[in-house]
Structure formats: structure tokens, C-alpha cells
Amino acid sequence: MNKGDVLPNFLVIGAQRCATSWMYFCLKEHPDIYLPFIKELHFFSTLYEEGMEWYKRYFSLWNGQKAIGEISPGYLYSKESPMHITKDLKDIRLIVCFRNPIDRAYSQYKKHVRSGMFSGSFEEAIEADLPYDPQYIERGFYFRYINRYFEYVPMERVLILIYEDIQKDPIAFLKTIFKFLEVDVDFVPSCCNKIVNSEDLDSSYTYVHNASQFMRRQMRLDFLIDFIKRSFAQGIFDRFFHSKASFIIRPKTNIDKFKINPMCEKTRDKLSGIFFDENKRLEDLIGRDLAFWV
Questions:
Q1: d(CA 107, CA 122)
Q2: Does residue 91 lie in a domain region?
Q3: 56 pLDDT more than 90
Q4: How far apart are CA 74 and CA 41, in angstroms?
Q5: What is the CATH number of the domain that holds 169?
Q6: DSSP 200-260
Q7: At a CB cut-off of 8 Å and minimum separation 6, what does 169 contact?
Q8: Cα 4 to chain center, whole Å?
């Protein structure tokens, strides 16, 4: 295969706040898996007009790995993504991870408070949610989002995972992914027990990631990204962050430092009722009891 024609044969499409950052580091470490040095390319959701040649550049460092992928959790929520993906990536395999939608919403809230996007209680955040870009409740209606993909992709090419299984047995969780991708299932990434989600990422990685996204999407400095990718700088970047993955967990910080209020029990009960029917539909789809999502 010509390096200039390399495209993904699998995508991790979501969901947000469901360990996609942890999966990125673990999968990127696998010798049979290639992932771009930028985690989220957003091509099939918000940057599709850039064209396939633009997208292919992010896979130019492929070196014969069997599984070639990309992780953009926004693909799950985009109406256009299923059609775009299946139009350009034939026989694509999809991976999606779902988390208790109540905990997912609260995790989204914590991220927004820590980043300065919102201040106030979780209850106030829910009330202030924007109807044109809902962040909290709407994004927990998993069944309706994944069901759109089944209009384009057969179920046997979609792997649906449950976030809480990572906490029980992260190695078994990863083996499920490796088996689905038909790569060495016995490989154990050095970071599999150390990274939980993007809240725990060291700020230096987050800074570099966000800066590269800004240069690419806002300043239109694709040529600079290409230079990094095609030069010695890419190797340094990868070696630094692969080695850093073993100690990028930051100490758990007192929640009060960020003025993050705990969720009220009444709020959890209310959200449990809101998500009940949607969770039952997902249960029927995957054949698994999700009663622990309360």
C-alpha cells in the first residue's frame, strides 16, 4: 500500500467522556496499530470540506501496521458522520464506548468548570444547556445516536463497549478491542492501568494537543503540522509522550478547589428517570443488563 493512500480501517467514534483518551494512548502503544499523533481530527464531522487528500496526510507515517485508526468522539453525535464515513471508508470497523449517562454528564460538567467554560452547580449547568449544542443530557441518549450508524454499517462491524468494564479489568477490556481489530491480543500497554480519562492527562500533553488543533483549524497552518509529521520532530513528539504515558496521571485534586459542587441525589434520581427508556433500548441492542446505570 502506498503511504500516500493510507486511510483508516477502524474508527473510535465516541462517546464523549467515555475513556477515549485512555483508549488513544493504549491503542497507540500497540505495535500492530497506527494512530495519528493528534487524537481528534474531526474530519467526518466538522472538517469534511477539507477533502480526502487533506485527511490522508495524517496517516502518512504509517509503517505497515495492520490496524489503522482514528479517534474522534464527536463522530457519534454528528448527523453527517455515518454517511461521510461509509462513503469514503469501505468495510470500516467502528468502536464506541458508553458510560452511565448520568456520570457522563457530570464528567462533562466537571471538565467545563475546570476549563473555565462554566461556573455554578451541576443543576444550573443542566438548566443552562444550549438547545443548539446540548452538552449534558442529550449526549447520553446513546441508542438514538448509534442506531443511525446501523443504517450504513452492519452490526458485526460495530464494537459496543461499556466504560465501567475498564474499572473492573482494563486488560480484558483492551483484549476485546484487539480481538475485534485482529491484532495481537496478548500485548499489554504500559499505561493500561494508569490513565482513566482526559481529566487525568498531564497539562503538557493537553496544551500541545489543543495548540496543534488551534493551528490546524483556526490559523490554517497545515504546512507546519505537515512539517512536524514528516520530520524528526514527530519522532521526538511520539517518544516523549509514549514514555510520558507511564506517569501522566496527576494527583486527584480536592473537588472544592475547582468549586465543583457534588451532584444532588434528587438530580441523580431525576436523570435516572430521564435516561431509563433510552438505556432499556440500548440493553436490548447489546443484550446486556445495564441496571447498574443508576
A1: 10
A2: yes
A3: yes
A4: 10
A5: 3.40.50.300
A6: GS-HHHHHHHHHHHHHHHTS--HHHHHHHHHSHHHHHHHHHHHHHGGG-PPPPPPGGGGT-
A7: none
A8: 25
Q: How many domains does the chain have?
A: 1
Q: Which domain holds residue 29?
A: 3-101+137-250
Within a domain: residue 57? yes
In a domain, 280, yes or no: no
Query: pLDDT per residue over 189-241, tens digit each?
Result: 998 987 544 554 444 444 555 565 565 555 556 556 555 555 545 455 544 54
Cis previous bond, 19, omega within 30: no
Place of cell 502503544: 29
The verdict on residue 227 lying in a domain is yes
